[in-house]
Amino acid sequence: MAKCRLCGRVSPFISAAIGYCADCIRGNFSDIEGELAALHRDGRQREGLPPEVPKAPEGKGCRICGNRCSIPPGGRGFCGVYENRGGRLQPVSGSWRRAFVHWYYDPLPTNCCAAWVCPGCSSSGYPRFSYSRGPEYGYKNLAVFYSACNFDCLFCQNWSYRQGVGEGGLEVKDLARAVDEGVSCICYFGGDPTPQVVHAILTSREVLERNRGRVLRICWETNGGVSPPLLRQMADLSLRSGGCIKVDLKCWSEEMSLALSGVSNRQSKENFKRLAELHRQRPDPPFLIASTLLVPGYIDVEEVRAIAHFIASLDPSIPWTLLAFHPDFRMRDLPATPRSQALECLEVAKAEGVQNLHLGNVHLLW
Ligand code: SF4
Ligand code: SF4
Predict the structure, then answer these.
(1) Which atom of ligand 2 is nearest to the CA of 119?
(2) What is the tens place of the pLDDT at every residue in 233-281?
């Protein structure tokens, strides 16, 4: 239970870490944006992460994601993965072919947020993109966790990535070696694959070349904030391999994105539009899948309605998973998503015209 510092409302769905309710974030953002920016900055500083998106007038530009950092000499970009060394943009790992990443095998079917529609876990895509008419029992997913992110979500459910940028890194060839005959799909996630996407693209090309003639899907789970030319390369790999891009549409309003994730969601929405056009080329198995975490009190019916309207206006057949939230990272004082909120959001999404809806993490609802 916390009190909104602006309107004074008291509610179990206001996080003390943020200190403001959703209505004040959307309606009075200019009054509180400085304080919200400081919240992200201070937290990141304590963890040894670059505190904010650098915009140095004479800095070196990075165009990998929508943050478009301009990094001062000797400084690092927001994700912590790139630095300006002698006026050149250099990966902290020492090479574009080396990334801060770890991997593991995940037996299929997995609990992936696209499992209900993907070739690895359902009947879609058989026989061209799947080994089996149903879930691919006996096969496995190569789960590739990139330890960096271009967002700073206070509700992050995978925040272990924040300790990830250190020494060394894994070479493309060493990650590619993990693809054995039992692997039928690769999922790049994290953190987010965006900052180190060049490494993932190089790995994908290498493994697809080496595994020509057999099913091997390339999939991504991302906030969608990558730059359009790199997005196109990610999309091409997924389109031809039968894989998918899972875009986390975290919220609709830019103010909510700045408050909860510390950065704008404009690039993510523009990219989603681009991907929706490609989705029409390959709706089965679905190429594009959306997901949204129902953070109580913040990702409310108003946010969900606007996202639903957006998806339905692009292509109502795009699958969309609404995910129940569990208290984590800086928003541990919130409860899990109430069942009533999840059901109301589903109804609203349906009413807006989205046809392919799913509720995930239902065991968390109360
Ligand atoms: S990848 Fe994004 S966050 Fe990282 S340095 Fe480049 S522009 Fe900044
Ligand atoms: S990685 Fe792709 S194919 Fe494999 S389980 Fe996830 S969505 Fe399905």
Answers:
(1) 3
(2) 999 999 999 999 999 999 999 999 999 999 999 999 999 999 999 999 9
CA–CA distance from 245 to each of 172, 198, 232, 235, 290 (Å)?
21, 16, 11, 7, 8
Is 292 a pocket residue for ligand 1 (Cβ < 6 Å)?
Answer: no
15-49 pLDDT, tens per residue? 999 999 999 999 999 999 999 999 999 999 999 99
Cβ atoms 225, 254 nearer than 8 A:
no
Is any ligand 1 atom within 6 A of the Cβ of residue 64?
A: yes
Instruction: State in Å: Cα 349 to ligand 1 middle.
Output: 33
Q: Is 161 in the pocket of ligand 1 (CB under 6 A)?
A: no
In a domain, 263, yes or no: yes
**Dist. CA 336 → ligand 1 center (Å):** 32
Q: Name residues whose C-beta falls within 8 Å of residue 266's C-beta, 6 or more positions apart in sequence.
A: 66, 254
Considering only CA atoms, which residue is closest to atom 1 of ligand 2?
187
Task: State the residue range of the domain holding 147.
Answer: 98-364
CATH number at residue 177: 3.20.20.70
